[in-house]
Amino acid sequence: MKALFVREFAMVQALNEISFDIRQGEIVGYIGPNGAGKSTTIKIMSGILVPDDGSCTIMGYTPWKDRVSYVKHIGVVFGQRSQLWWDVPVIDSFELLRDIYKVPPGDYRSNLDLLVETLELQSLIHTPVRQLSLGQRMRCEIAASLLHGPDILFLDEPTIGLDAVSKIAVRQFIKTINEERGVTVILTTHDMSDIEALANRIILIGGGSVLVDGSLSELRTRFGVHKKVIADYRETDSAIRIQGVTVQSRSAGRAVLLVDTEQTKISGVIGELSEQVELLDVSIEAEPIEEVIVKLYKEYQI
Ligand SMILES: Nc1ncnc2c1ncn2[C@@H]1O[C@H](COP(=O)(O)OP(=O)(O)OP(=O)(O)O)[C@@H](O)[C@H]1O
After folding, report:
1. How far is the CA of 26 from the centre of ligand 1 (A)?
2. Which residue puts its alpha carbon closest to atom 30 of ligand 1?
3. I need a labelling partner for 69 at 20 to 30 A (CA). Which of 8, 93, 150, 218 fits?
4. ipTM > 0.95?
5. Which residues are within 8 A (CB) of 25 and not within 5 positions of it... i.e. 6 or more apart?
6. CA-to-CA distance for 31 and 191, rounded, in angstroms?
7. Residue whose CA is closest, atom 13 of ligand 1?
8. Which CATH superfamily, name and number, covers 23-220?
9. Domain residue spans of the chain
10. Signal sequence: where (predicted)?
11. pLDDT tens per residue, range 170-190
């Protein structure tokens, strides 16, 4: 009741001196923990939000000032929001978007055919949006954002709630439009496997600032220093002890070892292992990207 009469306001600085350039044709993973400022950045870059300060130039346009001419060049997908009309068949929304963006009929037809085929929308486009599952709707959302053939695609959690098959289909599609049409993609997601599958570059933000800007392999070299060695061997009671190696788990005939590759060479570990047990099989795995990102968040205390 009190809040109805006396509103308390607090200032939140959502972004603070964020600065980066993105080249045409890049796929950039824009990542960070909850509340880091990812959606705010995407909203500024797509012209929905006006920043209090600073500048942003995309293809020569200032998104929030040149909205009418700028939106022709961009496609936006917000995983949490729909740009499709809820009660009408998907194709009606597509046709409305065609008219809003004034897409020439020939371009619309060829874009639609390509999107329907690659995103497997044949059976969906005549169904009202409210009758679609989340994954089906997301595939239609992505198609809707691309009908006018944009140069840049902003994706804010595009694979949220998708099953494994739809996720792979959506990722494959993003890759294809990037490679074949040179579409620049800016992707925010909490799903690190999306990042691993798609992004050549990562921008990590936290507390509204850019903390890391680099390639995934650079991040791995810097933060992913552990490798997992999974060894299968003929069962034995003898202990496995190797300097610089942690035995993460051990069950009948199998041990999982964690190796700090800055301290210990993998070849040495396998050599010592084969002296201590009768090895049957060995596999080596890089540190999962999720764990690398958790380390990053810890290092920057975000
Ligand atoms: N409409 C709003 N009014 C007030 N504060 C907001 C609003 N939207 C976002 N914020 C604040 O701005 C900051 C950045 O939010 P933003 O939505 O950009 O984060 P995010 O990185 O996209 O987070 P998430 O991963 O949870 O989606 C947060 O502190 C958030 O509370």
Report:
1. 25
2. 35
3. 93
4. no
5. 178, 182, 183, 184
6. 9
7. 14
8. P-loop containing nucleotide triphosphate hydrolases (3.40.50.300)
9. 23-220, 225-286
10. none
11. 888 899 999 999 999 999 998
